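Hey, I was hoping to borrow your eyes for a little while. I've dropped the whole record in just underneath, so have a look:

——
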Amino acid sequence: MKFCNQCGQGNPDDAAFCVQCGTPVDEGAGAAPPVIEGAAPPPMEDAAPPVPGMPPPPPGMPGMPPPGYAPLARRQTDGMAVAALIMGIGGFFICPLVFGVMAVIFGYLGRGNIQKSGGVLEGDSFCTAGIILGFIQIGISLFFIILWVIIAIIAASSSASALAPAMLAAGLLA
């Protein structure tokens, strides 16, 4: 193991540059790190080689990524996924058939966006919840529409049969 004459970082034997500060490590570097009076011993960790043209981070900075590594981007929730969930919940209070259909549409569009994003977008669970709530609202709405039609047909047929004798008596039916 070679040690840097500049910062004292341990480097692999085949390294041409220090992994900590990027200074050239000469072939005659000793087996022991240089002793700097009054300084704490340098950290002995392997780090990535520095990016050319980028100065190394100051030693001892907490939370700094190693040189050459970009910080991770924060994932965002897809807007269609949020819309699907809002429509799925709102449909229980306002116009369930329309909001249910919109929740299903937004849910499937959001799922497509999330899959195409390659891991940048999240919110698949919002899409799933919106789709499920939308289908529940569509089913409940269709049930009540069919029930209403059946009741209307029964009411119309029963009132017509009740009026038939009176219409015959009045001469309106031949």
